[in-house]
Amino acid sequence: MEAPQIFLSHADEDAFEAALLQSYLERSLVDLDVRVWSYKRDQARDERSIGVSIRERVRESVAVIMLVSQFTIASGAAQWMELAYADAFGVPTFVLMHHITFEDLKTKSGVPPLVLEGQCTPAIDWRLMEPDLRGVLRK
Fold it and tell me: Quick one: CA torsion of 20, 64, 105, 79, rounded to 10 degrees?
C-alpha cells in the first residue's frame, strides 16, 4: 500500500513557512508513514500540464492543508482552485490562517464561499490541527 499523502497548498511568497510545516508534519506523522506533497518541492519539472497534475495530487490525497495569507489573496485563483478540487473530491481540508484572520479574509473579494470558519486555524496555533489530521489519516 502506498503511503498516505497530504497536499500542502501555499502561495509562492509563503514557501519558507510551508517548507517548515512540511518538514515538521513528515517528522511528526512518521508513525503513519505520511508524505506531504507541495508544488515547490515535489512537482515534476517536466510535467506538461501542471493544472492536471495539481488536480490529480489533490485527488490522491487524504487531506489538504491550505496555508492562507495575504499573498493567497493577491495571487488570484490558483490556491482557490486547489480548494475547489478538494471540495469536489471530498478531501478533508484544513486551513491555516497566516497573518490574516477569518474575518479579514471574508472581507476580501475573490475568496470562495468554500472557506469555512470551522476549517480555519490561526497559523500560530498550527499544532492544534494535528489530532484532527491524525484522525483523518487513520481512517
Answer: 90
